């Protein structure tokens, strides 16, 4: 019995199976120089399909300049050898990455490795189109050149040097800083990497830098949310004091007087407005905080894959991230927890006040009924 593949397979089987192989690492064999760009293009008011289209338009413009057919508009991965350089493009939810790789004829000293980068082949007009969108920009040099710790410090202009030995087949050096040319710098010394190991190592290092920057996007929102949360918290404390004092905290309040629930209704209205402000703030921050948490987990996973061992006198990449990135992520997480706790407190106050208003209304209705019964008896 013959069964056609169209009817035999689930509609998503082929694309899901292809997803596993959709983002292979570059095949690198030093000496190589690479330039990596992460282009951020997410806007809150744009649908994901529109964002993918805008990223594809950028890629199509670059391909057309070199007379190369662009990928399908719905493509999320693209690789092409342009002759003078190779390009690997990947589309993600919020950004796309462009990795330009150029093979060198001869190795050069690390201090001169960044004088000629593959980005020089890219037209200036295309680079100008990225204005205001570049989230990460890094130059990487990969070669079998030995260098002392002193020489490496000179390459990074005396900045705090971060480095590690990755499984005894490569050394990774960087400072996670932006050089005067606007790019970060990474030096990878090949100590005998096997087939595709170099490509995977470069990919991990570049993903650490990209996901680190994307994770930090949550920090400004956490800092902006702090004074707003302080204001909401102070207002809730004032309204709660009015509830516990039986309305005395409010000027001219008659909340404790039977039959006069107007002040409770006013208090309920204010707490409802406070709840709406809290909900609006949580909605504005929820996506960003969740994304930062996911990116941070990816950073930690990529560091685990490096299997670092210490180079004497130099902090490892994990140590650098623990000291510089982890506090920012803790700030985002604590702000998110504070939002949730404050929303729960507002909800409890709201429920309590609604109960008070309901009791007062019941008492008022009972007095009205008693008055009607008295009149009927008369």
Structure description:
With 378 residues, this protein is α+β, with helices and mostly antiparallel strands. It has two domains: 177 residues, no CATH class; 160 residues, no CATH class. Helix content is 51%, strand content 15%. The chain has a nine-stranded mixed beta sheet with strand order 2-3-4-1-5-8-7-6-9, with helices on both faces. A hairpin with a 4-residue loop joins strand 2 and strand 3. Helix 7 runs antiparallel to helix 8 and helix 8 runs antiparallel to helix 10. The longest helix is centred in the C-terminal third of the chain and has 52 residues. About 4% of the residues have low confidence.
Label this structure with key terms:
single chain; 378 residues
Q: Which overall shape is indicated by the principal axes computed on the Cα atoms? A: elongated
What is the terminal-to-terminal distance?
Answer: 96 Å
Number of strands: 9
Largest sheet: 9 strands, mixed
Order of strands across the main sheet: 2-3-4-1-5-8-7-6-9
Uncertain regions spanning at least 5 consecutive residues: 247-260
Helix content: 40-55%
Q: How much strand?
A: 15-25%
Tally of separate helices: 10
| Helix vs. strand class | alpha+beta
Q: What is the radius of gyration computed over CA atoms, rounded to a whole number of angstroms? A: 30 Å
Q: How many structural domains in the coordinates?
A: 2
Overall average residue pLDDT: 86
Secondary-structure element pattern, one letter each: HHEHEEEHEHEEEHHHEHH
């Amino acid at each position: 019995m013959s069964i056609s593949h169209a009817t035999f397979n689930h509609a998503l089987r082929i694309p899901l199976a292809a997803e596993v192989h959709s983002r292979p690492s570059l095949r690198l064999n030093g000496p190589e120089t690479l330039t990596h760009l992460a282009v951020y293009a997410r806007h809150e008011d744009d649908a994901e399909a529109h964002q993918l289209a805008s990223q594809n338009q950028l890629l199509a413009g670059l391909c057309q300049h070199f007379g190369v057919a662009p990928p399908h508009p719905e493509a999320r991965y693209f690789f092409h050898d342009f002759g003078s350089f190779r390009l690997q493009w990947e589309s993600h939810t919020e950004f796309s990455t462009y990795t330009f790789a150029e093979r060198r004829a001869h190795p050069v000293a690390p201090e001169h490795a960044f004088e000629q980068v593959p980005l020089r082949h890219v037209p200036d007009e295309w680079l100008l189109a990225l204005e205001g969108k570049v989230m990460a920009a890094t130059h990487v040099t990969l070669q079998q050149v030995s260098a002392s710790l002193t020489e490496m410090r000179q390459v990074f202009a005396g900045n705090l040097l971060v480095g590690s030995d990755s499984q005894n087949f490569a050394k990774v050096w960087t400072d996670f800083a932006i050089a005067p040319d606007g790019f970060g710098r990474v030096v990878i010394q090949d100590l005998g990497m096997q087939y595709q190991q170099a490509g995977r190592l470069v990919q991990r290092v570049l993903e650490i830098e990209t996901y680190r920057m994307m994770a930090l996007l949550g920090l400004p929102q956490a800092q902006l949310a702090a004074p707003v949360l302080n204001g909401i918290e102070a207002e809730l404390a004032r309204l709660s004091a009015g509830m516990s004092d039986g309305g005395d905290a409010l000027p001219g309040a008659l909340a404790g007087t039977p039959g006069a629930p107007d002040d409770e209704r006013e208090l309920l209205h204010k707490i409802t407005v406070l709840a709406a402000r809290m909900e609006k703030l949580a909605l504005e921050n929820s996506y960003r905080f969740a994304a930062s948490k996911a990116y941070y987990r990816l950073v930690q996973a990529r560091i685990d894959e490096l299997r670092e061992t210490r180079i004497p006198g130099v902090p490892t990449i994990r140590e650098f991230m623990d000291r510089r990135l982890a506090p920012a992520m803790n700030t985002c997480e604590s702000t998110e927890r504070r939002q949730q706790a404050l929303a729960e407190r507002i909800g409890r106050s709201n429920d309590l006040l609604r109960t008070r208003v309901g009791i007062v209304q019941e008492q008022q209705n009972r007095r009205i009924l008693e008055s009607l019964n008295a009149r009927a008896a008369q």
